[in-house]
Amino acid sequence: MSKARIAVLVSGGGTNLEALLNAQEAGKLPHGEIVLVCASNEGAYALERARNHGVPATVVARKAMSQSAFETALSIKLAAYRVDVIILAGFLSILSEEFVSRWPDRMINIHPSLIPAFCGKGMYGLRVHEAALERGVQITGATVHLVNEIPDGGRILLQKAVEVLPDDTPQTLQRRVMEQAEWVLLPQAAEMVCRELAERETP
């Protein structure tokens, strides 16, 4: 059985990418293989993380292109590496409904809250944790979901709750959510999707 070929799309530091690469090296992605890391900007440290693990890393710079040109360039890269599954790991560039529709049940996103809480336009990164603290919730967490044509839509694959502590800052809460939820869930969800893909395509 051939492994599903995974591309991880990134925009920043790549901590979730690191979790995926470590999981792969530990044998926790038996049905998938990360074959490409693609960043939306040249300064993303995630590119260095990929190279440190021997994974091809490339850039499709969003700021330099129109939406159509950006997605065309991205599609060319994905086709060149024969990608089967896309993982959005801190990818901050918006993808059109038309682009997303080409990847049914093959595009995974992670969000640092328990969807439907603290999601939607402008809710990403530290802003999510700031909103959680402002609201005064005692429990937050992370969600991994399949992306479909509807913003913030798609099937929820996994969720994990994380306790909010009384002295939390957005930064300490962000770190705890990453350590206890994001870095645990994302590799599990990646393997889940790759396994489902393999099962569908096995005669």
Task: Provide structural commentary.
The protein is of the alpha/beta class. The N and C termini lie close together (11 Å). Helix 1 links the parallel strand 1 and strand 2. Helix 5 packs across helix 6. Strands 3-2-1-4-5-6-7 form a seven-stranded mixed β-sheet, sandwiched between helices. The model has no long low-confidence stretch (mean pLDDT 93). Helix content is 39%, strand content 21%. The chain is globular. It contains six helices and seven strands, in the order E-H-E-H-E-H-E-H-E-H-E-E-H.
On the 0 to 100 scale, the average pLDDT is: 93
Main sheet characteristics: 7 strands, mixed
The strand line-up of the biggest sheet is 3-2-1-4-5-6-7
What sort of overall outline do the alpha carbons produce when their principal axes are compared?
globular
Quaternary state of the chains: single chain
Structural class: alpha/beta
Number of strands: 7
Number of helical segments? 6
Order of helices and strands: EHEHEHEHEHEEH
pLDDT < 50 runs, ≥5 residues? none
> Helix proportion of residues, in percent?
25-40%
How many angstroms does the end-to-end distance come to? 11 Å
Strand content: 15-25%
Q: Radius of gyration in whole Å, from Cα?
A: 16 Å
Keywords:
203 residues; alpha/beta; 6 helices; 39% helix; 21% strand
